[in-house]
Amino acid sequence: MLFRSPVRTYTAPIHRLLRMIDPHWPRPEPPRDDRERFQREVLDGYGRWLVDIRGLSPQTLRKNGDAARMFLHWLGASRESLYRLGVPDIDQYLSWRLPRLRRATRHGVAVCLRSFFRYLFAEGMVLRDLSQAVSGPVLYQFDDIPRAFTAEQVAAMLHAAGCDRSPVGLRDHAMLLLLATYGLRAGEVVHLRLDDIDWREDRVRVRQSKTGVESHLPLVGPVGEALLKYLQKGRPKTDAREVFISIRAPY
User: Fold this and answer.
1) What is the 3-state secondary structure (H, E, C) of the chain?
2) pTM here?
């Protein structure tokens, strides 16, 4: 039996209500000292630099920001210590950070840190460009062994989801059918809107999450039936135009 913390049981609905009232809740706590204030200023400037110079997506922006935040926290960075930053400091951080990570994750951390160090040098916060001092594993195309479910596993998963007639089950079954039938990305399913389903022409409009390019796919029978069941019997009443809605408010 799954044990659920009593504290979380009572506080989770309150937190959802606060997020519905204020999308930016919880507000960040004010800096505790000058060192923390400086680190936040660096991270804010780095975020603006990524958007203005690099034009990165919110997901990539968050990933780069997290890597920079962890490094500054580890360093206990102040204006003086950051200016004196050198290769031995970077080597020491990488020897602490990388060993417990997967190879692909180590590569991602190295890429994020190189970007951060290029920003620091461009803003004159470090003496020289230290991006080349960040060593990480090289990833090659087709480096990993492909991982996928077998046809039998997919069929079993769809069957199990189809047996659940609850609102959650109807929603999950429709989402899984979209993934299994069309090979869509998770983000493409999540961002599917009511206007994207053309019931008269039996087709679905999909916006590719990486490129934003639109494509139209035929609305095959099982997918259309699953979507219709969810929309009629499982989807909460809301003004939101996304097809798939969270079960608990705020939707």
Assistant:
1) CCCCCHHHHHHHHHHHHHHHHCCCCCCCCCCCCHHHHHHHHHHHHHHHHHHHHHCCCHHHHHHHHHHHHHHHHHHCCCHHHHHCCCHHHHHHHHHHHCCCCCHHHHHHHHHHHHHHHHHHHHCCCCCCCCHHHCCCCCCCCCCCCCCCCCHHHHHHHHHHHHCCCCHHHHHHHHHHHHHHHHCCCHHHHHCCEHHHEECCCCEEEEECCCCCCEEEEECCHHHHHHHHHHHHHHCCCCCCCECCCCCCCCC
2) 0.51
Provide the residue-wise pLDDT of the chain in tens; the chain has 251 residues: 344 444 455 677 777 777 777 766 666 677 778 889 999 999 999 998 988 877 767 777 888 889 999 999 999 989 999 999 999 999 999 999 988 888 888 889 999 999 999 999 999 999 999 999 998 876 666 555 556 778 888 889 999 999 999 999 999 999 999 999 988 888 899 999 999 999 999 999 998 876 778 889 999 999 999 999 999 999 998 888 999 998 877 76
